[in-house]
Structures are given as C-alpha cells and as structure tokens.
Amino acid sequence: QNVQDSLDYFGGWDIRGVGRILSVNGDVDPWSELALTPERQRGHSGRRPTVWVKGASHHFWSHPPKETDDDEVQAVRENIYGQVKAWLGEGDGERSFLGMIW
After folding, report:
1. In terms of pTM, does the model score above 0.85?
2. 76 part of a folded domain
3. Residue 3 is assigned to a structural domain of this protein
4. Beta-carbon contacts of residue 77 (< 8 Å; ≥ 6 apart)
5. Which residues on neighbouring strands pair with residue 26, listed in sequence order?
6. Would you say residue 10 lies in a domain?
7. What gap in Å lies between CA 33 and CA 17, rounded to an integer?
8. Helices (H), 1-102
9. Which GO terms describe its molecular function (predicted)?
10. pLDDT tens per residue across span 21-77
11. What is the DSSP annotation of 23-37?
12. Segments forming the whole domain that contains residue 94
C-alpha cells in the first residue's frame, strides 16, 4: 500500500516528455519497488535508460569507491559518469549506455 500511496502522490509512472533520466537500482534496495524500469516506461526507455545491479543497495553508486566493490558496481559507476558527462557536454545526439544505443 505504501508504494501505491507514493505513486498516487507523485503522479505514478507517467512522466511523458521527460528525458535524460538515468534510473540506477540495486536488487537489495528497499526502494526498488518504486524503481523506473523498462516495463514501466510505456515505450520511452530509450530516453530514460535503466540499470539493475545485482547485489547493490540503495544509492550504491554515490558511495565512495572501495577496492572490495564488485566489478559490476565499478563498471556501472564509470558508465553513470560517462552518461552524465555526455548529457552535460553535448547536444541530443546518439548516446550509448551499457551497450544500449538510443
């Protein structure tokens, strides 16, 4: 019920006309029930790429890197950095994220 209450309050999954949202989630994140996923994007996943990281917790990507971080977590951090850098530094040209092109 709490998930539905949050969706109702914030307008649900309908975010038409919005792009450059990178949704990064971990499968042990307690907020993952509210995560933006390709299935919830109604055909707009190209403008709002999503990444699901096995073994990652809430905001794992914002924590300082450690030598003990999984390879997948390290790779996703690098890809997040690259995607944001591309969005900030260039126009609306084609971008790549984890092998996805849009």
Report:
1. no
2. yes
3. no
4. 61, 65
5. 53
6. no
7. 23
8. 2-10, 71-89
9. serine-type exopeptidase activity
10. 888 888 888 888 888 777 776 655 556 788 888 888 878 878 888 899 888 888 888
11. EEEETT-TTGGG---
12. 15-101
CB 40 within 8 A of CB 50: no
Question: How many domains, the chain?
Answer: 1
Residue 60 carries which side chain, given as an amino acid letter? Answer: F
Per-residue CA distances from 64 to 4, 12, 17, 44, 74 (Å): 32, 32, 33, 31, 11
* Beta-strand relationship, 23-26 and 50-53: parallel
CA distance 88 to 90: 6
In a domain, 1, yes or no: no
Rounded Cα–Cα distance for residues 5 and 37 (Å): 19
